[in-house]
Write a structure and sequence with these properties.
The protein has about 190 residues and is mostly helical. The protein has helices spanning about 1-10, 25-30, 30-45, 50-70, 75-90, 95-115, 120-160, 175-185. The radius of gyration is 16 Å and the shape is globular.
Amino acid sequence: MDLGSQWIDNLYSIPNVPLSFPDEIESRQKFRKPILFIAMISAVELLPNLDSILAMFFLTLITLTDFEQQVILDRMTIPFAMIGVIRIFYFQLDLLDYFLAAGIGGLIFLILAFLTHGSIGGGDIKLIAILGIWFGSEILSLIVPFGIILAGISAGIMLLTGLKSRKDFFAYAPYFTIMAIYFLITE
């Protein structure tokens, strides 16, 4: 658990890392260690193999960095994607399906990023592509709509309670990662 938290701290300290709240790192990370602890205990208890546990680890870290700083860092997504590719070959999964899911999912989110004038960021685009690598087209086609619905419900609650205004940025990735974790556990 500390390893994940230390990794995030090290990534935040790299010069030119685009943090949204660089002066609020400490105050925004107060729930990080308990969340990591719960996630990793749950992963060990609920998930059947090492690749699923690694996926849970990366998904939790991505969720935390997007909530804390509204950023998904390449130094986190690249190893996650590489492990996903290795997993495809190791388990002899349908290479075409998983890579098409990654490419089409990433392309759709790239188009959405342009149409929404940047409301969907590059990290979200990469995350969807990586989820395609990890889950293939069938599960990705469930993660995306349910993640959007979950994000919409959350955004509505935040707007109604005054936690966010219509002009505030909103982290989308955690809702896709939450759905991905759900499918990891139920697979």
